[in-house]
Design goal:
Strand order of the largest sheet: 6-7-8-3-9-10
Strand content: 15-25%
Number of strands: 10
CATH architecture of one domain: 3-Layer(aba) Sandwich
Order of helices and strands: HHEEEHEEHEHHHEHEHEEH
Bound molecules: adenosine-5'-diphosphate
Oligomer: single chain
CATH superfamily of one domain: P-loop containing nucleotide triphosphate hydrolases
CATH class of one domain: Alpha Beta
Distance between the termini: 26 Å
Amino acid sequence: MADGSDAAPQSAAKVGQDQITRAPEQEAPLRATSAAHAVDLRKTYGTGQATVHALAGVHVAFERSRFTAVMGPSGSGKSTLMHCMAGLDRPTSGQTFVGDLDIGNLDDHGLTQLRRDRVGFVFQSFNLVPTLSAGENITLPVDLAGKKVDRDWFDYLVAQLGIADRLSHRPNELSGGQQQRCACARALINRPDLIFADEPTGNLDSNSSAEMLSFLRRSVDEFGQSIVMVTHDPRGAAYADRVVFLADGLAVDELANPTADSVLEHVRALGT
Ligand code: ADP
């Protein structure tokens, strides 16, 4: 579970200072060791008085084969960060890397390939295609890429997620939990380098949430998946190896080896 750091959680000021003073030569090791990282990432919406700095210069790295939770108040930039780092949206400035690939250098075709081959995304609202069966939804990324489905991997995923007997059903014939497990299998079918999950349990009851979070945890422990998950729930964050806290478009603090209680304490201390 450890992320290699036994140090006490850093204060917001300390983390901010480290971010600002990070030398360019420190970026190279980050490219080698992190599943994804962002350098001075900014995203601005609107102009003039209506300007919103959704991301105000985020420096953050997400480690390989680790489960990282991202928390912060509503409007702090969590979804914008996920979308920019997954290549679903382009930042206003700054850099985002998946492994050592600077995704700002990719054209639209390159971003499509990145999303198809290297990054999986799980949305709060499942985003399944209503006219396709559960099985067809899961294999959609492979089918779109014109590749052959790895049947052993497919069978493993649907068995692990407990949806092997639901594959011929359309999404509207599945419970919320089953739809999200289906979306999770779809995100994993191409064995991506990392998965971004934006409040994946936000629409699930507590049993379905626990099942989904246990699956995400197992996928890190058993096959080294890298996962970044936005959550509001301290109990959900406690499944992660590390929590990164956002506020006002900045990564302001982090916590290793979280428990629900330590996350709550941190949230209170940050005043968020
Ligand atoms: P979070 O996920 O933490 O709730 P978001 O990343 O969704 O935060 O939003 C960060 C800020 O950016 C908010 O103030 C939000 O209103 C604003 N924002 C997000 N998307 C847009 C958009 N498409 N147009 C204008 N403002 C936006």
